[in-house]
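> forwarded from #structure-qc
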């Protein structure tokens, strides 16, 4: 199930592994994302502001539909 769009900042992204973490605005825990979730650009960089949705699967959460803010 996907949530409404949220804003945050990319804290880390490893292009070789295709994985990264977003720090949500508002101080929640960092949210993992995969390169396949990035939309409208090829890659996002550390410190970049993004908009994303949360997808919950089992006990885990991840960012989906990650796009530049």
């Amino acid at each position: 199930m996907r949530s409404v769009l949220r804003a945050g900042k990319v804290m880390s992204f490893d292009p070789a592994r295709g994985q990264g973490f977003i720090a949500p605005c508002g101080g929640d825990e960092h949210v993992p994302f995969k390169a396949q979730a990035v939309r409208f650009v090829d890659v996002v960089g550390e410190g970049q502001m993004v908009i994303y949705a949360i997808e919950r699967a089992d006990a885990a959460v991840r960012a989906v539909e990650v796009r530049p803010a």
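QC bot note: The CA atoms of residues 8 and 26 lie 8 Å apart. Strands lie at 6-14, 19-24, 31-34, 49-57, 60-68.
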